[in-house]
Amino acid sequence: MLRSIEQYLRSTVLPESVMDNVERIANRIVVSVLKNGPIPHHMAFIMDGNRRYAKKGAMAKIEGHALGFNTLKKPD
């Protein structure tokens, strides 16, 4: 079964406490940007690292791209 990038990072690369801190800091940055400036009319996401993730996980490139897309569209 395919795992999300977040699950992969939490389970093999970074300790839980580090991931929690990264998530908290990212949320603070987003809130700060929205509080201090006009709300953007559009947003772009650069899907970088999907091929490297797939290669590291010994899977096809398309699986890495699919995992990246599925992670991006998650509501949480």
From TrEMBL:
The keyword Transferase applies. GO terms for biological process: polyprenol biosynthetic process. One of its GO terms (cellular component) is endoplasmic reticulum. InterPro entries: UPP_synth-like (IPR001441), UPP_synth-like_sf (IPR036424). The keyword Transferase applies. One of its GO terms (molecular function) is ditrans,polycis-polyprenyl diphosphate synthase [(2E,6E)-farnesyl diphosphate specific] activity. SUPFAM superfamilies: Undecaprenyl diphosphate synthase (SSF64005). Keywords: Transferase. It comes from the Eukaryota. Belongs to the UPP synthase family. This is Uncharacterized protein. It comes from Sphaeroforma arctica JP610.
